[in-house]
Amino acid sequence: SKKVKSLPKDFLWGGATADFQYEGGFNEGGRGILSHDYETDGSQAHPRHHTMRLSDGQLINPKSSFILAEDIPDDAKPVFLDDQYYPSHQAVDFYHHYKEDIKLMAGMGFNVFRFSVCWSRIFPTGEETEPNMAGLKFYDDVINEMAKYNMEPLITICHDEMPMNLAIKYNGWTSRYVIDAYVKYAQTLFDYFGDRCRYWLTFNEINAVRGFGPTGVRQATGHDRYLAAHNMFVASAKAVSLGHKMIPESQFGAMYAMSELYPATCKPEDMFHHMQARRENWYFIDIMGRGYYPSYAEEIWQHHGFNKLEIAPEDLATLNAGQLDYIAFSYYRSNTTKDGDEWFNVGGSANPYLDETPWGWPVDPLGLRYCMNEIYDRIQKPIFIVENGMGAIDQADDQDYVEDDYRIDYLQQHLSAMADAINIDHVPCLGYTMWAPIDLVSLSTGEMKKRYGFVYVDMDDQGQGSLKRTPKKSYQWMKQVIATNGATL
Ligand code: BG6
């Protein structure tokens, strides 16, 4: 018998983006320098890098957005070089195309659009006492434009970023000063947009903690990593409590990179290792979703080379008061792990049962259903799938039209798995925002040719092109899915 795919009446259908990959307008409207602004383009073979200068004048190019703290000397300062391309500066220019893009999204029937506010557009250095009004006006215009189509915002307050000044001056999230800067920033957003925004995400992929030191996007290790995470937990909880007070209808989540993780074999050592490795993710969800540090926290710290994290008693009360209302996550792929692998990993051992995208990401729709059940079983709060999609090389014809059947297949399979989790397993799921409805710049490689959209954007890996928007074949397909609320899946 055919399974019922139709979804709850108030299901939220939409798309998701991040400011520095989508928005551009880097030196407009008083925007300050953001941590991602010094990151160059790259590819799978040539990782993105940062352009920096040491105090003796020497230029260095530390690689990728996942660089570790110890990879960069303390005297390194970011510099812009004329011969480099920095994708965040223009991105795909939502800044000047927002009316057109919102209309295109509305044309598919979106009733929600997830975007991130650029922190340095609101507080250029993070330290001002008054916000930048031109920055607030931009998002005000965006939200008002969406309202014309009854599309509600899902705002990511912080998507893997911070004003560069905070990263350099305070070493980012290792400092408690940044908690206050964040809460002031969040409060400003609640003040200006709370009357039109119910759904909020305090952080994007918080379990991939970034936002330190001279590059602003490097990762700390060991004690510093967990200290930074703790400060983010406190910042998030303070924002949630404040948001609940300021916006009566508000619902708060944080977003986790929760692509599925399987043990490579059923060997007990692999199974046990898998449980420990998965806790590297649960650690973040448990603390923010349940409001307290889990019993296994100490074991995680010891694994990372330290015994204790100094946590003030008032922080524990803050975490308990500021629990999330729903758990949001990104799902692209599944991974496997075996005894002896690192605990925190994307990738791990090969999975012989799955095909991969051209970027080597295993395609696993059933893993999405598994993940939805896994999170709900554990936390017992509604979930929200806020990123899922397929990065692929699209061949546009001379009218810029793309027949992206591979993307339709990927989405069809994943949305069907989602519908099964909702209809058969009865997992409460608020909605689905596909990454990314309009083509934009890839986070990991900085490429344009790794495209996700329902809408093609005429731009190449070097930022050249007319920026013209053209719906792909998947655009019409998604429109049907939404119009029938999933029944055509
Ligand atoms: C998530 C991020 O990790 O994955 C997005 O929240 C990112 O910012 C997305 O774009 C897809 O990754 P990529 O590297 O293909 O852009």
Task: Explain what you see.
This protein has 489 residues and is an alpha/beta fold. It has one domain: Glycosidases (TIM Barrel), CATH 3.20.20.80. Helices cover 35% and strands 12% of the residues. A 9-stranded parallel sheet has the order 8-7-6-5-1-14-13-11-9. A 3-stranded antiparallel sheet has the order 3-2-4, with no helix packed on it. The protein has a two-stranded parallel ribbon with strand order 10-12. A hairpin with a 5-residue loop joins strand 2 and strand 3. The longest helix has 25 residues. The relative contact order is 0.15. The model has no long low-confidence stretch (mean pLDDT 94). The site of 6-O-phosphono-beta-D-glucopyranose (BG6) has 13 residues, from loops. InterPro entries: GH (IPR017853), Glyco_hydro_1 (IPR001360), Glyco_hydro_1_AS (IPR018120).
